[in-house]
Amino acid sequence: MSLLVTGSIGVDTIETPVGRRDNVIGGSAVYFSYAASFFTPVRLVGAVGEDAPQELFKVFENRDVDLSGLEIRKGSKTFRWHGSYLRDMNEAETIQVDLNVLAENAPKIPEAFCDSRYLFLANTHPVLQQQMLRSIKQPKLVVADTMNLWIQTERKELIKLIGMIDGLVLNDGEARLLTEKKNLIQAAKEVLSYGTKFVVIKKGEHGALLVTDKDTFVLPAFPAENVVDPTGAGDSFAGGMMGYLSTQGHVTPATVKRALAYGTCVASFTISDFSLGGLQSTTREQIDQRWNDFKQAMSF
Amino acid sequence: MSLLVTGSIGVDTIETPVGRRDNVIGGSAVYFSYAASFFTPVRLVGAVGEDAPQELFKVFENRDVDLSGLEIRKGSKTFRWHGSYLRDMNEAETIQVDLNVLAENAPKIPEAFCDSRYLFLANTHPVLQQQMLRSIKQPKLVVADTMNLWIQTERKELIKLIGMIDGLVLNDGEARLLTEKKNLIQAAKEVLSYGTKFVVIKKGEHGALLVTDKDTFVLPAFPAENVVDPTGAGDSFAGGMMGYLSTQGHVTPATVKRALAYGTCVASFTISDFSLGGLQSTTREQIDQRWNDFKQAMSF
Question: CA A257 → CA A25, A288, B292, B297, distances in Å?
């Protein structure tokens, strides 16, 4: 079923112990869309400046990603991020960030996209996330991501958003910052009390945690020996998760669990190369194979 | 089958965000023995000073733990450790340590214990670990633990020990220190190259990793909401693992995996109270129930 994502589209410069890449394609919506497109058609909504590199469009050439919601804004510049993992492969250090077009008005969701049933609101200002959510007529499943900046500056609006959605995806540091609880299960339960049905806490190389009011599901990361570039792992995880869920037609604890395992596997391909390289050299068959390997690697 | 453990027996003072306990029972061999005794009879070998508290003996009163290898050394003092988890529940900060009897000669393994088939060499000087290993006639499975101190000061002897044993259990920081590899899978493979058959890397609240030359098994920690005192979690993990394995009669990838899950569950009881309180208020039935819950909590 129709899956819509709104989020950032950017140009990244990345340094990791393996090497450095300048001006490569990145952004939460880009990783998400590519990852989800292994499972289902994707509608991408986002904005770039008139300096957007041509490679951005080439990346999606043979993918089932509808770019009619991709706005190329005249007089604006594309979002740029320069990050380093030289100190810690599990947490990026931002060396420079130029919000550019992300600091302007939110992109408009095309009328033709307003019937989308599955919606992923990648990290942006929670008021914009609320606006975009309201323009979708009958969503079946709405999941959002967020980041430290909004937790610190727009806490009230973020908590309001959380009460409007089905699931929140965030990383362990963000969960602790949002709830002021160190224990992640306690943190997740606090987030549930804001009115969402499930919380997924991403722990990077340590896996993920799903908490609902009835259930807790723990998942290690896929045991990856060669990590080249962790950028986009969380967005790919969300993309794999939402992509799989949107093919299932119903959202149950069982489908969400399987979806998390798919997200984990897709993310493990993302981190195996710089930028989108890991996803670009992967097939749905390889993802399914890894899903089975992963299930095996944690069964007892 | 007969399971022997050699390691420390001590008196701890512990500070955690939940509270503080002064002069409580602790030590690697104590946690290990209690945890393993849910599964199988245990032979404990260790030394204390003449100041050893009476509670130590009371702790094992109704457990199937043979204390005839527990040496009460005249003129010596018991090992004491004062640790704090106020900064980080996942890593103890040592406030004070008095090695006392641990800095003297190793305890002697009683003749009657030398037929033990399962042996766990809890953390001590690797030369002493080698000596104790040599006094066991026909061990079927030998697993050792170690710590930063020996990695830094007795690296050569430690690597020699690793070549003599079947499995090494160590935590993530130790694995990285020993191998100078940041990636834990790479670190585990490096340890395998020293001549052991399997490596278990404990990641505290993030679970554990088992690596053999054929297989990688990843396991999250049991999702615990209320952590009171993490002291002894790693030793309880090892105790549950070895306790279960020694009842199986054969060591296969499948039994080792199930054993790791048992270790995880036993450790989750340990951290629910100070000192041995969590283990003391637990039954084998509760451990089995948690094992099933844990299997459920990570199945998809």
Answer: 30, 15, 17, 10
